[in-house]
Amino acid sequence: MGLFDRLRGRGTRGRGAGGSGRPATLDRGSERADLAHLEQFVGTRRGVEGYVEPRTAVTETTIVLVAADGEWTRRRIAGPEVARRLSRELSIPVYDAQVTGYPRRMRDWTSRRNHDHPR
């Protein structure tokens, strides 16, 4: 079984849009491309940490990866258990965003980017 299969929980899920036995959300579930993006982000940046965001009525569980310089990305994942496996597989710390909040460097990076690239 490959990394993507392990992280996706072998792709088997029960009922609902996500098939996990939970009620459906309005969002799509995580896909192989999401996991590939997360792996690529970790592999090409220093000091990456993960922040898990809970599933809501509108979105599936997501993870925000934040690099040492504050650059960040967000992708869907199949649940908190996938975040724990991702942490082990990619050797990064993962936190619960509702408990820890987000690092200041993430807000600073976003602010710099918005300042440099006004809409």
For this entry, give a set of tags.
119 residues, alpha+beta, four-stranded mixed sheet, globular
Q: How would you describe this structure to a colleague?
A:
It is built from 5 helices and 4 strands. The chain has helices at 3-7, 32-44, 80-90, 97-100, 104-116, and strands spanning 49-53, 62-66, 72-76, 94-96. The N and C termini lie far apart (44 Å). The model is unreliable at 10-20 and 23-27 (pLDDT under 50).
What's this model, at a glance?
The chain has 5 helices and 4 strands; from the N terminus they run H-H-E-E-E-H-E-H-H.
Q: How many strands, what sense, and barrel or not for the largest sheet?
A: 4 strands, mixed
Order of helices and strands: HHEEEHEHH
Inertia-based shape: globular
Which parts are unreliable, with pLDDT below 50 for 5 consecutive residues or more? 10-20, 23-27
Distance between the termini: 44 Å
